[in-house]
Amino acid sequence: MFSLHQSPPPLVHPDGQQVMELIPEPFLILDGDHRVVAANQAAADLFSQTRGMLMGQGCQELLFGLSGACPGDDACPLTLQPGEVRVSEQRVEARNHQGRSRPLKIRLSRMAGDAEGLVGLQLLAENGGQESKGAETSQVVGRSSAMSRLMHVVERVAPTSATVLLLGESGVGKERVAEHLHRCSERADGPLVVVDCSALGEQLIEAELFGYEKGAFTGADRRKIGLFEAAQGGTLFIDEVGEMPLAMQSKLLRALEASRIRRVGGTDYIDVDARVVAATHRDLGAMVARGEFREDLYYRLAAFPVDIPPLRERREDIVALAEHFLEQAGGAHQLPLSRSVAELLTEYPFPGNVRELKNIISRAAILAGSGPVLPEHIAFQSRQGPAAPPAREDREMRADGNTLPFPPPRRTRNGLTRERIRAALEASDGHRAEAAQRLGVSERTLYRHLQRLSEVD
Ligand SMILES: Nc1ncnc2c1ncn2[C@@H]1O[C@H](COP(=O)(O)OP(=O)(O)OP(=O)(O)O)[C@@H](O)[C@H]1O
To answer: Which CATH code fits 14-132?
Structure first.
């Protein structure tokens, strides 16, 4: 059978078309401008169009649900270097007649011996073509030029061993991008282990990251493997690294430099092979200047910084994200969103970024019930007009809006007190997502705090 890695068709003539029909997966050939010049029947079926209708359609419209021509070499995730073959996992907005899109893995390859820059696209459905919940929930939605550029960069750095630092306001999708980076790396079959420094007290961080030996401290009644070890062969995602205490920063640096750790209370060093991806919403450079963050660790972590822009700076993504969340909330029958709702959403500045949009849509889906989502179902959490981006230092205070019943707390390690969490949960009728929004933290952070509090009880 024809394989992309063996002998792809040099040009698209009738014989080439016949060869393409032998490929069981949907297969497209795009020209140098990323417009379809050939497609097999499986691709036509996937897009619910005829092969003739697919001809001439551009990558933006067909694959990413955007209007306009291909943004060009640097910004298009389909750009390949000569001879490059890449498997790139990304959401293809392959809408069928019900308006549903599905997660697909794309194998890209430049056509051997071609001078025209023809690109072959093999579209590999996940789970035998069924929409998989896992893939669905870890998709990075959004094909604005800012996100396209970002995904391009992330997919380039993913196969390397570089330490990556993800920067961006709260709720922009740092963890989501970290998941994507892991899935695109050669460690994808290994574990992705997440540690949130803002949810751990000073002493706990070391024990969590490096583990401990039995008897290392009161309560250590057995040996515990740390998260570095748990991430062997995979990726360790250190979230909110700016919250890490200085003493712990030196230990982390040593572990990164030497690729080995020592459990708390242990004497032996243990080799670790974990790729580290860190994230923060803080300005680490400013923290270094104030002596709050170690300069050497900063340079080690920021070997490859990736800035994720706030949602207000990539408004083209808002509708695609909203429809994705609506589908996730069981509202596939409410797709596509009406023009009035789309306009309402794209005018709002989303101080809480993608997380805020997700909460708004989940609520709207419930309010709309079996009918379409209407403008009156959209309840913004902050009615502030478009604002100038806050100074980095202020972002954490304003990230989720400033008209909440109480001001969002500073996200220091001990910032979430029992009383604040209880008040937020009461005000949200026990809904964790909403309580997290009120507190200005991620759901996962709130969950970890709740777990810790229940352990103390
Ligand atoms: N591009 C995206 N596509 C789909 N879902 C997204 C995207 N970006 C963010 N989300 C969703 O929005 C929510 C917030 O994203 P995430 O937790 O990754 O943000 P974050 O920047 O890590 O936030 P924090 O700094 O508060 O930890 C999550 O539910 C996530 O799944």
So the answer is: 3.30.450.20
